[in-house]
């Protein structure tokens, strides 16, 4: 016996590192050579990494979500000496061993779906629970899903015809028979028609980042019951105050003072007063997060990133301004690390920077809410029974209705509104 280390493979010509998005094995598992052991994401591809050896997993050297350079060990495998002589464990098995041996009945990997399998099943409305996996330990492979879809396509017309005949007979036997027939009717799998290229169309390959965004957004919309509301806020005092101090702040601190830090400061203060807004759904309970860390949606040329301002409740407006500037610079220069993206508890989306006045953001899973700050625009409003020109902004919030309801969300927004409308040099320190 000897211990061999599996290294992070190079999954592309110019790829220098990869992120372990999911382990497909655990310590103590036995694997054969070429069995998939992990899913790895790079800036170019999302792929399964096969084992280089046959043996037993003795140690996982990287956490899920950890990024490692190409060539760095990711796990240790205990292998037999025959492995180094070019004989795999599969080849050493006796042909007399029956197929009913214990590992043939092992289905421990049945529900460990790869992103490719999960996406294909969702696109074609396939219930993965009903499939039998041909992979190791019952794991469902892409070929299993494609085979199921193909089988459904061949019999779809016959199923539809049979179902129509059943319904016709049911109508003749009354409502009670209809209920029984409907209950017993077999479900029909109808593959989704995929878009076809036409002349002049351009294929844009999916980057690892864009694929990760897509998967997270689909998961959020599928799992989280979204609710949405909006309030308008008079930020005339904020606009005037910021205009008075922005030039001095730039000269003194070397950073621009935008409106965003003021909004974040008010949001963070309201989160401290209403901690349920700073929560996550955990299946059988709701977890109110102690830390108040703001995920900030920042757009780049090819994707939307959501880096995190950690412990935002401990920062002044100056500290928030510097943090916002630093994260935006990292996004522009492609210097974000995985650590910059972890730990967010509530998301702020500055859609106003694009001129938007109203939006319905998708919640950043697994958080419970996301708030969009829209454009500040001058509008005529009624103040003290007189029409005045004021600087107004819409704040739009999407919430997880499992965790939050209209009452607490309304109080939360009202508190943000109060804080923003009462900004002044006297009660809003920058430092």
UniProtKB/TrEMBL annotation:
<dbReference type="GO" id="GO:0005737">
    <property type="term" value="C:cytoplasm"/>
</dbReference>
<dbReference type="InterPro" id="IPR004167">
    <property type="entry name" value="PSBD"/>
</dbReference>
<dbReference type="InterPro" id="IPR023213">
    <property type="entry name" value="CAT-like_dom_sf"/>
</dbReference>
<dbReference type="InterPro" id="IPR000089">
    <property type="entry name" value="Biotin_lipoyl"/>
</dbReference>
<dbReference type="GO" id="GO:0016407">
    <property type="term" value="F:acetyltransferase activity"/>
</dbReference>
<dbReference type="InterPro" id="IPR036625">
    <property type="entry name" value="E3-bd_dom_sf"/>
</dbReference>
<dbReference type="InterPro" id="IPR001078">
    <property type="entry name" value="2-oxoacid_DH_actylTfrase"/>
</dbReference>
<comment type="similarity">
    <text>Belongs to the 2-oxoacid dehydrogenase family.</text>
</comment>
<dbReference type="Pfam" id="PF00198">
    <property type="entry name" value="2-oxoacid_dh"/>
</dbReference>
<dbReference type="Pfam" id="PF02817">
    <property type="entry name" value="E3_binding"/>
</dbReference>
<feature type="region of interest" description="Disordered">
    <location>
        <begin position="81"/>
        <end position="110"/>
    </location>
</feature>
<feature type="compositionally biased region" description="Basic and acidic residues">
    <location>
        <begin position="81"/>
        <end position="94"/>
    </location>
</feature>
<feature type="domain" description="Lipoyl-binding">
    <location>
        <begin position="3"/>
        <end position="78"/>
    </location>
</feature>
<feature type="domain" description="Peripheral subunit-binding (PSBD)">
    <location>
        <begin position="112"/>
        <end position="149"/>
    </location>
</feature>
<dbReference type="InterPro" id="IPR011053">
    <property type="entry name" value="Single_hybrid_motif"/>
</dbReference>
<keyword id="KW-0450">Lipoyl</keyword>
<protein>
    <recommendedName>
        <fullName>Dihydrolipoamide acetyltransferase component of pyruvate dehydrogenase complex</fullName>
        <ecNumber>2.3.1.-</ecNumber>
    </recommendedName>
</protein>
<dbReference type="InterPro" id="IPR050743">
    <property type="entry name" value="2-oxoacid_DH_E2_comp"/>
</dbReference>
<dbReference type="Pfam" id="PF00364">
    <property type="entry name" value="Biotin_lipoyl"/>
</dbReference>
<dbReference type="InterPro" id="IPR003016">
    <property type="entry name" value="2-oxoA_DH_lipoyl-BS"/>
</dbReference>
<keyword id="KW-0012">Acyltransferase</keyword>
<dbReference type="GO" id="GO:0031405">
    <property type="term" value="F:lipoic acid binding"/>
</dbReference>
<keyword id="KW-0808">Transferase</keyword>
């Amino acid at each position: 016996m000897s211990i061999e280390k599996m290294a992070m493979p190079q999954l592309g010509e110019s790829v220098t590192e990869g992120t372990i998005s999911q382990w497909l094995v655990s310590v103590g598992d036995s694997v054969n050579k070429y069995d998939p052991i992990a899913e790895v994401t790079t800036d170019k591809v999302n792929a399964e990494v096969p084992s280089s050896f046959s043996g037993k997993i003795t140690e996982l050297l990287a956490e899920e979500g950890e990024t490692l350079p190409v060539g760095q060990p990711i796990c240790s495998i205990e292998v037999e000496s025959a492995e180094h002589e070019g004989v795999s464990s599969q080849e050493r098995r006796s042909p007399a061993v029956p197929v009913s041996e214990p590992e043939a009945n092992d289905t421990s990997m049945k529900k460990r779906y790869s992103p490719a399998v999960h996406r294909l099943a969702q696109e074609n409305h396939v219930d993965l629970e009903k499939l039998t996996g041909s992979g190791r330990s019952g794991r469902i492979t892409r070929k299993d899903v494609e085979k199921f879809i193909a089988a459904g396509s061949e019999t779809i017309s016959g199923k539809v015809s049979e179902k129509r005949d059943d319904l016709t007979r049911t109508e003749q036997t009354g409502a009670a028979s209809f209920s029984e027939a409907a209950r017993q009717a077999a479900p029909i799998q109808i593959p989704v028609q995929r878009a076809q290229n036409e002349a002049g169309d351009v294929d844009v390959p999916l980057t690892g980042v864009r694929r990760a965004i897509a998967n997270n957004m689909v998961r959020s919309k599928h799992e989280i019951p979204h609710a949405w509301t909006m309030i308008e806020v008079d930020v005339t005092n904020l606009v005037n105050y910021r205009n008075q101090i922005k030039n001095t702040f730039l000269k003194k601190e070397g950073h621009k003072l935008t409106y965003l830090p003021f909004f974040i400061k008010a949001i963070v203060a309201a989160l401290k007063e209403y901690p349920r807004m700073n929560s996550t759904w955990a299946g059988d309970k709701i977890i109110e997060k102690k830390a108040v860390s703001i995920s900030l949606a920042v757009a780049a040329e090819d994707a939307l990133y959501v880096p995190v301002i950690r412990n935002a409740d401990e920062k002044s407006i100056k500290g928030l301004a510097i943090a916002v500037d630093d994260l935006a610079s990292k996004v522009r220069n492609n210097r974000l690390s995985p650590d910059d993206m972890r730990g967010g508890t509530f998301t702020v989306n500055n859609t106003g920077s694009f001129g938007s006045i109203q939006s319905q953001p998708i919640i950043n899973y697994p958080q419970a809410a996301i708030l969009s700050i829209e454009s500040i625009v001058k509008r005529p409003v009624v103040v003290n029974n007189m029409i005045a020109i004021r600087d107004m902004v819409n704040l739009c919030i999407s919430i997880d209705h499992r965790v939050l309801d209209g009452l607490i969300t309304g109080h939360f927004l009202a508190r943000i509104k109060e804080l923003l409308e009462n900004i002044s040099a006297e009660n809003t320190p920058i430092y």
